[in-house]
Specification:
The complex is a heterodimer of chains A (about 220) and B (about 270). With about 220 residues, chain A is mainly α. Chain A has helices at about 10-15, 20-50, 55-70, 70-85, 85-110, 115-125, 130-160, 170-180, 185-215. The longest helix of chain B is centred in the N-terminal third of the chain and has 33 residues, at about 65-100. Chain B is elongated and about 75 Å long. The chains are: A mainly alpha (about 220), B mainly alpha (about 270).
């Protein structure tokens, strides 16, 4: 490969753009964190609302599944029309994609709770809400958390494509590289964006392992 | 990145314990199976009819000519099928080799690499390869394959790993050669997981092929980028709608193939 004029080594590139890269990495991490958090709250609420009816559960998971099959670029494109370019379509798209694994795992997790435990709880006089909060959700929590973990990995990658609709984050590096294809630093930019996202994804995954350890009720820890 | 990751598919498959019976359920449900593609095709046709009959300016008209739309759709299908085929040709044999007893020590390592590789964003992989190899159809295919091969490999390995060792032992015990154990016991038992992996790959490839247009790989993504750069909403929306419908249609086809090809009695 011929190096066009002005090309610097990858490390030099990282050094010279440090501030910008740190900022974009932070943006990416915070976008993913916030969207997954919103999706976690919404997803658990949806899951709690539907899990008692087999029909509603099937409907919620298959609707989310259909939605999930739609490629992210198509969804981002569809969202440009009502929401314009920028942060709004990116955040909405990321939240929507993050919902599916969480809804599905909430439904599966809650359905997997041993019925005899729920009966026992009712037997000792716990209210419906107390059973949900103190028995069912804690027992389903590891499964729900796995859903959130999958969502996070997804959101990391889709977040990169969001830069196409002027969304925030490391995708900007990749698209800058694309715009300068064959020019100086195209490879450095793309590499910085891609590796940055891989590192963030691994970091978040590590955090999930930690959160899982800390928040799983002691009795069901493996 | 938009297609279901193997974990999700795998989860949905193992969680749904009851469909084992429904999987081969005969006639009663067959009309329902056809309902989905019919709905998809009707929606697609209705959308095209609506767009073609609405007021279009010259740019829109050019980008929405039925022949052009069909050409882009066909390119998209081509990208999807060619890349899926190559992914399978690489991933399935490699997965089989890596799950042999002598290669087992390498399994955790390969799975770890597959996991890390999967967290690379699709768009990053695509653009990186364009920087290295130039733009065009074959670069796109290389990028799609590079992106799709790890999940497919993972699925094949997981599928073969979960085969009950007692059954392979029994196969060997009744005097089957290792090749026959593989062909008659392991592969048929692993088939549902491997087939589910093929479906996942197909859907993953439809989604990733939509970003091929960034590196001149063709496909329906072209309509999205044209729509955005020329600020023509009908073109943008047509691209989005058709990609979405194509993904759903291919997912359905994958589902049908999974049902038809899965060995009976599982």
């Amino acid at each position: 490969m011929i190096s066009p004029e002005g090309t610097v080594s990858f490390w030099e590139y990282l050094g010279s753009r440090r501030e910008r890269l740190v900022f974009e990495t932070w943006q990416h991490a915070s976008m993913v964190f916030q969207t997954v958090l919103v999706a976690l709250v919404l997803g658990v609420l949806i899951g709690v609302a539907v899990y008692r009816s087999a029909r509603l559960s099937a409907f919620a998971t298959s609707a989310a599944g259909v939605f999930f099959t739609v490629p992210s670029l198509a969804l981002l494109g569809l969202l440009i029309t009502p929401l314009g370019l920028g942060v709004a379509p990116s955040v909405v798209a990321l939240t929507l994609y993050s919902l599916l694994p969480i809804v599905r795992n909430t439904v599966v997790g809650l359905a997997g709770v041993d019925r005899t435990l729920v009966d026992a709880a009712r037997g000792i006089g716990m209210t419906r809400a107390a059973i949900l909060l103190r028995i069912e959700l804690p027992l389903a929590w590891p499964v729900i958390l796995t859903g959130a973990r999958v969502s996070t990995q997804l959101a990391m990658g889709i977040g990169a494509i969001a830069a196409y609709v002027n969304g925030p984050g490391l995708g900007e590096q990749i698209f800058s590289g694309l715009a300068r294809l064959g020019g100086a630093n195209a490879i450095n930019m793309t590499l910085a964006g891609t590796l940055g996202i891989v590192l963030l994804a691994l970091l978040f995954d590590g955090c999930f392992v930690l959160i899982g350890r800390l928040t799983t009720p002691r009795g069901i820890r493996v | 990145m938009s297609a279901p990751s193997p974990e999700i598919r795998a989860a949905s498959r193992t969680d749904a314990a009851e469909p084992a019976a429904a999987l081969h359920a005969p006639t009663g449900r067959s009309w329902r199976m056809l309902l989905e593609p019919v709905v998809i095709l009707v929606v697609g046709a209705a959308w095209m009819l609506y767009v073609e009959t609405s007021d279009l300016d010259s740019i829109e008209e050019r980008s929405l000519k039925p022949r052009y739309v069909w050409q882009k759709t066909w390119e998209h299908i081509e990208l999807t099928l060619v890349s899926t085929l190559i992914v399978l040709l690489i991933a399935v044999p490699l997965g089989i080799v890596l799950s042999r007893a002598w290669a087992r020590p390498a399994t955790p390592f390969v799975l770890a690499v597959a996991n890390i590789g999967q967290s690379a964003p699709a768009i990053g992989v695509v653009v990186l390869l364009a920087v290295l190899l130039g733009i065009g159809f074959w670069t796109t295919i290389v990028a799609l394959v590079a992106y799709g091969v790890l999940p497919a490999l993972r699925n094949t390995m997981v599928g073969l790993q979960q085969v009950d060792p007692d059954l392979t032992d029994a196969g060997r015990g009744i005097g089957m050669s290792p090749a026959r154990v593989l062909g008659r016991v392991e592969l048929p038992l692993a088939a549902p997981v491997i087939l589910a992996g093929i479906r996942t790959t197909l859907v993953l490839m439809v989604g990733t092929a939509s970003i091929a247009s960034f590196i001149s790989g063709g496909g329906l993504g072209d309509m999205i980028t044209t729509g955005v750069t020329t600020q023509r909403t009908p073109v943008l929306l047509t691209g989005c709608v058709l990609i979405g419908l194509l993904a759903l249609l291919i997912d359905w086809l994958g589902g049908v193939a999974t049902r038809l090809l899965a060995p009976k009695g599982l």
